[in-house]
Amino acid sequence: MAREVRITVVGSGYVGLVAAVCFAELGHKVTCVDNDQRKVEELRAGHTPIHEEHLEELLGKHRGKGLSFDTNLHESAKQAEAIFIAVGTPQGEDGDADMSYVEAVACELARSLEHYTVITEKSTVPVFTNEWIRKVIERNGGERELFDVTSNPEFLREGTAVSDFLHPDRIVVGADAARAGEVMRAIYEPLTSGAYYQRKDAIPGGCSAAKTPPLLETSTKAAEMIKHASNAFLAMKISFINAVSNLCESVDTDVEQVAKGVGLDARIGPRFLKPGIGYGGSCFPKDIAAFRAVAEQEGLDFGLLTEVEKINTAQKRRFVGKVRSTLWTLRGKKLAVLGLAFKGGTDDIRESPAIDLCKMLLEEGCKLTAYDPAAMERAKHELPAGEKMHYAAGVMEAVKGADAVLLLTEWPEFAKLDLDAVHKAVRYPIVIDGRNLYEPEVMAAHGFTYLSMGRPPVYPAKSAHGAEKKK
Ligand code: NAD
Fold first, then answer.
1. How far is the C-alpha of 185 from the C-alpha of 309, rounded, in Å?
2. Residue ranges in the chain modelled with pLDDT below 70
3. Confidence (pTM)
4. Ligand 1: which of 8, 9, 12, 15 to mutate, judged by most atoms within 8 Å of the beta carbon?
5. How far from the centroid of its chain's Cα atoms is residue 447's Cα?
6. Percentage helix, strand, coil for the chain under 3-state DSSP, each rounded to 5
7. Strand pairing partners for 30?
């Protein structure tokens, strides 16, 4: 039978806020705590600081009922049965994870424990973090019998975070104490029993009452390793297909056909075999570095991860090379940039390859006009508007008079452009697509010179290569 658990989530970022809102959706009593006063006020007023499908809807449904927001961790933690730590774990100076935010939370929790509480790492953390959290709490006066530390890594993807959380492929719970495992099972029971999926108001997704997500119970250390190993493997898959894509370009064949043939092998699978401008975001780059740092600390050389990173970095230079080879020179060229977020469906620009590419092109002397459906406000902090950097209110404004159009983020609307209107608006009908959003023949038929990733370039259907100048 489902029971209500009193939960505190520390951190109201992409993971903490989504987790808090979804735990409330599962019927628990949740307080989401952040030390950013402005964020908390915004959330109390019903505004979500991040762009995620279903988030606003669920916030509206539960705010003031099962879900509240606070800056006071001490007060909230005193009443909680389970505390999820979801603060940032950015990359430290040597590539290892900077655990200072987690440590600060652990110190604060030490003085808040009044009854048995399960403290859970939701943030992505290196193996052994659970032991450090325990030590820090004990050193700061927390009584050992009043808490256990568990690991419950989060696998949600930005852009589909809410439905990923409520319809996960698996729930991993690393708990070394049976008592802590029981609390964690109770929290996820509405999902694992299928009760949530029978509700008429359930957020739709891949799970159902007949197909419930498995809850995998492991040791705490194994759960910590699972998260790092999963992200490292996914990044490796991306770098692998990017390396194959470059080879396809050399031998003049289509990587999409190759990826399809490879991905149909059930042992490999088709997902994450999409060539592009490299992975980015707040997770893969730092998690790969942190996982390698863990190996180094253990005296092991995980050189495979170094290669994964090398391919990823080279992919951006390769894209700039494509732009240069198409336009001959870059200085003074006016480029339309479609997409700034690190992937479609999010406003997150952390480690976005699109932002890196903009910086590289600005350094080469290009003039950019960028448009992104959600990420422009955040992008303006990284790429301030100025003489060479412009922001447009829409696609058509961005492409007007452009020497070339660059597709850098896989937003669905960028895959459905009015190609005739774009052709009319640009100075030269050249599209360089870092996300393979179009079929080359379609672009050629619409009169574009079209370069994409791992596929032969195509040129306007009825004209010779040089006939692309319009005005
Ligand atoms: P984020 O930067 O968006 O949010 C972190 C939040 O924690 C911020 O709002 C910050 O103000 C708050 N915070 C920091 N210190 C605090 C403290 N002492 N007390 C209260 N609040 C505090 O980060 P995120 O993207 O949500 O990532 C959080 C963790 O989850 C990271 O370890 C990340 O690797 C992991 N993760 C992220 C994703 C993702 O897609 N973003 C997916 C899976 C796992």
1. 37
2. 1, 462-471
3. 0.94
4. 15
5. 35
6. 45, 15, 45
7. 7, 67
Q: Give the burial string for 21-48 (b: 16+ CB within 10 Å, else e).
A: bbbbbbbbbbbbbbbeeebbeebeeeeb
User: How far is C-alpha 148 from the geometric centre of its chain's CA atoms?
Assistant: 29
Tally of residues, the chain: 471
Give the chain's domains with CATH numbers: 6-218 (3.40.50.720), 222-471 (3.40.50.720)
pLDDT one-digit tens code per residue, 339-377:
999 999 999 999 999 999 999 999 999 999 999 999 999
CA distance 32 to 76: 9
Which residues surround ligand 1 with Cβ inside 6 Å? 10-16, 33-36, 39, 73, 86-89, 101, 104-105, 123-124, 154, 156, 158, 282-283
Neighbours of 146 (CB within 10 A): 14
* Environment class of 404 (CB within 10 Å of its CB; exposed 0-12, middle 13-18, buried 19+): buried
The residue whose two tokens read 């903490």 is 16
